[in-house]
Amino acid sequence: MNNMYVYIVIYLTLSCDVQGIQQSLRNKVVVRQGNACGLCNCNFSKMMPHEIHHLNHNPKDNRPSNLLALCANCHTAHHRFGIPVYPFNYNYSTNVSSACKAYYEQ
Asked: pLDDT of 32-71, one tens digit each?
């Protein structure tokens, strides 16, 4: 691997002022949604990864009620084309399988 690439990655990692979301919180959001995108309802997998969206667009507001798991396509469509997204609604959620819970609650 090119050393310059490694230095750039390290620099960007250390210099970014982005509030990260703890993995345990990410997992709870995904389990809450039944391992499915909050917009198109596709199931998350290695080929369809999730991204966590802040409903109020404030990256420092990591309250669970402000977070929504979206697939990469829906997250991009929301930010690029203004496709609306709404808070997670438990009434429309699917049953979460025990395998899904076990995977995300490790």
From this structure: 999 999 999 999 999 999 999 999 999 999 999 999 999 9
Question: Could you count the other beta carbons within 10 Å of the beta carbon of residue 43?
Answer: 13
Helix (H) or strand (E) holding 24: helix 23-32
- Of 43, 27, 34, give the one whose Cα is nearest residue 94: 34
Token digits of residue 30: 């995904």
Phi, psi of 58 (to 5 degrees): -105, 105
Q: Determine the Cα–Cα distance for residues 67 and 26; give it in Å rounded to an integer.
A: 9
Query: For position 66, what pLDDT does the model report?
Result: 95
The span from the CA of 48 to the CA of 61, in Å, is 25
Q: Which of 48, 60, 55 is nearest to 88 (CA)?
A: 55
Q: What are phi and psi of 44, to 5 degrees?
A: -75, 145
Residues 6+ apart with CB under 8 A from 57: none
Token pair for 89 = 């609604």
Paired strand residues for 43? 36
